[in-house]
Amino acid sequence: MIKVGIVGGTGYTGVELLRLLAVHPDVQLTAITSRKEDGLPVADMFPSLRGVVDLAFSSPDKADLSQCDVVFFATPHGVAMAQAPALLAAGVKVIDLAADFRLKDQATFEKWYKIPHTAPELIEEAVYGLPELNREDIAKARLIANPGCYPTTMQLGFVPLLKAGLIDASHLIADCKSGVSGAGRKAEIGTLFSESSDNFKAYGVHGHRHTPETSAQLARYTGQKVGLIFTPHLVPMIRGMHATLYARLTQAIDDAALQALFEETYKDSQFVDVMPFGSHPETRSTRGSNMLRLALHRPEGGDTVVILVVQDNLVKGASGQAVQCMNLMFGLDEATGLKQIALLP
Ligand SMILES: NC(=O)C1=CN([C@@H]2O[C@H](COP(=O)(O)OP(=O)(O)OC[C@H]3O[C@@H](n4cnc5c(N)ncnc54)[C@H](OP(=O)(O)O)[C@@H]3O)[C@@H](O)[C@H]2O)C=CC1
Ligand SMILES: CC(=O)N[C@@H](CCC(=O)OP(=O)(O)O)C(=O)O
Predict the structure, then answer these.
(1) Is 325 a residue of the active site?
(2) Distance between CA atoms of 306 and 256, rounded to whole angstroms?
(3) Which residue of 100, 206, 210, 231 sits with most ligand 2 atoms within 8 Å of its CB, as the best mutation to test the pocket?
(4) Which residue's CA is the nearest one to ligand 1's atom 27?
(5) I need a surface site. Which of 28, 135, 314, 331 has the fewest CB within 10 A?
(6) 188 and 258 together in one domain
(7) Does the keyword Oxidoreductase apply (predicted)?
(8) Closest C-alpha residue for ligand 2 atom 11
(9) What is the pTM of this model?
(10) What is the ipTM of this complex?
């Protein structure tokens, strides 16, 4: 059994990790931390876990994480970088759901996250945890930088077209919407019910930290410098993310060949569903599951390709993706413990 520790067990991605890992056949939940809830049985806070998780939260300074085989950090930016060096030195693998190790350029990280990086020596070693694009590196990694939720949709949507050299890389547009759980469980005015329900708005239009993350990864995977305009929106739903991606074709290609390109790219990826050309994927078709669904469109047969991508921000956009990485790191089938079907309605 893989002994798992979770730092940040009281947040949304933390409890989502618990939901997935409590029934994972190869995992033994070993330590779950909370600074505020030391000693509280996990199932007292989350009754959905009654009967499946019998551990109590322990404060991060008391939890012996060095006895774990892997530790997930479901914490704000800056926490994993403080603890990863000691854990790695003790032979513990680390999966960070925050952004501490996502950007290879330290100055770019510090500019966007406004904190100094305290473990720069680990940045190069960290492997970006997007299995569909770098399974082999993940399998060999000790330290995973789990992608942001929006970047997962943008990368899986744009990469096939960029790799095939079919689109103008200098002008990619991503119009994305997230459910409110994307902002986490902490109290904030913008996520109060009376602020975010029955309301719809864009944010971060002038610049969002997921733009440098996505641009850097797209450049890394495709060898092309990209120009990306990314606009996130907050939609009045709890879970779910919808990305509408636009790219201009630079070569003649018919719809069937475009579709075939995506089907071929993701033929070995169990968690990417390439829907029939012209489909309209719905966020609820991914709710609670690790599946990302996408569909291609070509309005009026013109030279703009529209890629619609949906996922559950807490599963494929965060905790499910992290478990997918863990499976690869421990030589398991990538889908172990991740076969949940989306909840409808
Ligand atoms: N929500 C989402 O859809 C996604 C989130 N992410 C990223 O995942 C990470 C977690 O997000 P999310 O679960 O939404 O956040 P939440 O705000 O819901 O939870 C944060 C958790 O971290 C703990 N925590 C906070 N500060 C510290 C600290 N200094 N040391 C130890 N523990 C701490 C909190 O617990 P306590 O106060 O009890 O200690 C809490 O359990 C973030 O970096 C986020 O950006 C990534 C992709 C998607
Ligand atoms: C709706 C909402 O607020 N979403 C978050 C992104 C969540 C995420 O992916 O987080 P990290 O990259 O920070 O890990 C945001 O836009 O800041």
Answers:
(1) no
(2) 15
(3) 210
(4) 75
(5) 331
(6) yes
(7) yes
(8) 148
(9) 0.97
(10) 0.98
